Amino acid sequence: MNVIRSSPLVIILLLFITAFCMPIIKNNKRVKVLSGTSLGLSFILSIINFINVLNNGGFSYRIGHYDSPWGISFYIGNVEAIMCVVFTLVALLVMVYSYMTIEKEIGKKRVNLYYTLVNLLVGSLLGIVFTNDLFNGFVFLEVSTLAGCGIIVIKDEKENIKATLKYLVLSSLGSGLVLMGIAFIYPVSGYLDMDFIGKSIQSLEGANRNLIVISASLFTIGLGVKSAMFPLHVWLPDAHSSAPSPSSAILSALVLKPPVLFLIKILYKVYKIEVLREMGILNILLVLGSIGMIAGSIFAINQKEVKRVIAYSSVAQMGYVFYGIGLGSKLGVIMAIFHMIGHSLTKSALFLIGGSMIKKTGSKYVKDLKGIGREMPITLGLFTLCALSMVGIPILPGFISKWKLAIATIESGKIYLMGVILLSSLLNVAYYFPIVINGFFGHENLEGKTYMSKELRKPKIIPIGILVICVILTGVFSIQIIDFIGQGF
Q1: Angle separating helix axes 158-189 and 207-226, nearest 10 degrees
Q2: Which of 36, 201, 419, 473 is most deeply buried (CB count within 10 A of its CB)?
């Protein structure tokens, strides 16, 4: 039992230790085997951890000799367990795809460095998900930022360097704000463990109350920068669109989510819902989430490059997440978490597909993808399924998120915001459907195109196909997933 309870820590240690072994291995095939083995074992351990939580409930895990609040602890509940499964699965499938493509994108000499950075990134992201300690979470945030910058700049082209610098500067600003938040909350509470902080600050009044408001604001803005909350998203489109395709998939699917989960933990464990309503932070998140849902989609419509369309779509989709949190209801937060799961699976597949289309056509522009459905029918078919989920077609997880968020909106007495969800869904159609329609239909678009002439080989299709199957299964089993998340919240 204790061995199973140690699995979250073992996953992180496994990823970190193998990451530091990779730079000394000069054979790229062996590096890929080590990467695949470490991620595969991490996925198996995440399944074991998930089953344990499913059968026995959430638990705290002490790191080191001292219990909280003096030592560091992880808390692994339903949300942490399911996110661990999603993260390790997505990372494994994206990396399997990358083993066949990465050398052409970054060169043979940087392969071991690339997989070192990926393992560090995934391990640190899981650390953010698991930790119950503010400063420990900050350290994992910093590791993930540096590793995230690494998998963007590793392509070593002008636009990558520029995008990385923008990401590094803004993310460092976000980190600074998070650190300031910790600096404000620690003197008034005396703790870094979130549960203990929550208990100690409930009775504070006067000047200390102002410090609490300031610290909550700093956490919200700082983690909002890292998770691309509108209008703090300006680093995202350049970073996601210029990075190698597997990096884009990891950045969009995984890197944006742990800061949001960390923020949810801080808001609900440290400050509690009554204080949040009093401070007005939930209203701010609701407004920014609503604007992000609309603005992100409008930006996406105006993009000419396919990866930038998908990148700006992430801004809109993260708007749904902050919208759900901002509703301030249990259902709203549950659907924000469910939407992150669906988005992780869907967006990783979309970026891999987008990257493969760019490689096969030799063009990154949407206008050059006309007729691609005849040349790459299976690939565009998988893209279509993901696009339908993003738009919100029934059964798929995008629809479930929007439907349940609409119910949460009505239950919260904010029915006037229903228009935001409807408008955002229509805007999603405006930038995804032209790619699908022009790819599959139109005499002029298909003229001169040869059937299956540019289709991906089976080994490349399989990881993308599994991701798309997982998207469908997430929608089919949405009731069970939502119930599971709700039981642990």
Answers
A1: 160
A2: 201
Question: Tokens in use for 466?
Answer: 């599994």
Given a contact cutoff of 8 angstroms between Cβ atoms, the answer to whether 431 and 305 are in contact is: no
One-letter identity of residue 210: N
User: Could you list the pLDDT tens digit for every one of the 489 residues in the chain?
Assistant: 577 899 999 999 999 999 999 999 989 999 999 999 999 999 999 999 999 999 999 999 998 888 888 889 999 999 999 999 999 999 999 999 999 999 999 999 999 999 999 999 999 999 999 999 999 999 999 999 999 999 999 988 888 899 999 999 999 999 999 999 999 999 888 899 999 999 888 776 666 778 888 999 999 999 999 999 999 999 999 998 889 999 999 999 999 999 999 999 999 999 888 888 888 899 999 999 999 999 999 999 999 999 999 999 999 999 999 999 999 999 999 999 999 999 999 999 999 999 999 999 999 999 999 999 999 999 999 999 999 999 999 999 999 999 999 999 999 999 999 999 999 999 999 999 999 999 999 888 888 888 899 999 999 999 999 999 999 999 999 999 999 999 977
- Which residue type occupies 375? E
Q: Tell how far CA 274 is from the center of its chain.
A: 28
Q: Per the structure block, which two tokens stand in for 35?
A: 């990467």
Query: Alpha helices, DSSP H only, in 251-396?
Result: 257-265, 272-279, 281-301, 306-326, 330-361, 372-375, 377-391
Q: What is the enclosing helix (H) or strand (E) of 97? A: helix 78-98
The residue with tokens 């803004």 is: 170
Residues 250 and 321: their CA atoms lie apart, in Å, by 18
Q: Please, what's the b/e burial string for 474-483 (b: 16 or more CB within 10 A of its CB; e: otherwise)?
A: bbeebeebbe
Q: At how many degrees (to 10) do helices 194-201 and 158-189 cross? A: 50
The residue among 421, 170, 196 whose CA lies nearest residue 317 is: 421
